[in-house]
Amino acid sequence: VQLQASGGGLVETGGSLRLSCEATGIASSLNFMGWYRQAPGKSRESVAGITSSGMTNYADSVKGRFTISREDAKNTVYLQMNSLKPEDTAVYYCNAVGHRPGVGVGSYWGPGTLVTVSS
């Protein structure tokens, strides 16, 4: 299973970005897909997640500004980020949890995409 994220970049405070992450190499629907981020000098933290049934959760710091969605036909998860703040600057990683026949349930990570919000 491989995850490839895209959509990161440099944006001014108050701007928007949309991250995408496609999972390939898995035929079944992914149980969970999510976004995490790691700012310089800080631990990785959960940003948002979405289950196969569409239930979502968000970190308090991004509620009302970020929206997570998924497109199961493409095994892709999106993160729409609005009203960006300098403190949102981080490397964003996508995560997917799914079942593979003969392997079982696994958690997979993408390589990360950098989001920089200038003040």
Would you summarize the structure shown here?
This protein is mainly β.
How would you characterize this protein structure?
- The protein has 119 residues and is an all-beta fold.
- It is built from no helices and eleven strands.
- Strand 9 (90-100) and strand 10 form a beta hairpin.
- The radius of gyration is 14 Å and the shape is elongated.
Oligomeric description of these chains: single chain
Cα shape? elongated
Rounded to the nearest angstrom, the radius of gyration is 14 Å
What proportion of the residues is helical, as a percent range? under 10%
Structural class: mainly beta
Strand content: over 45%
Query: How many strands, what sense, and barrel or not for the largest sheet?
Result: 7 strands, mixed
Order of helices and strands: EEEEEEEEEEE
Average pLDDT value? Answer: 95
Number of helices: 0
- Low-pLDDT sequence parts: none
Overall number of strands: 11
From the N-terminal CA to the C-terminal CA, the straight-line distance is 37 Å
List keywords for this structure.
119 residues; mainly beta; 7-stranded mixed beta sheet; 4-stranded antiparallel beta sheet; 58% strand
Layout of secondary structure:
Layout: E1 2-6, E2 9-12, E3 17-24, E4 32-38, E5 45-51, E6 56-58, E7 66-71, E8 76-81, E9 90-100, E10 104-109, E11 113-118
Parallel strand pairs: 2-11
Antiparallel strand pairs: 1-3, 3-8, 4-5, 4-9, 5-6, 7-8, 9-10, 9-11
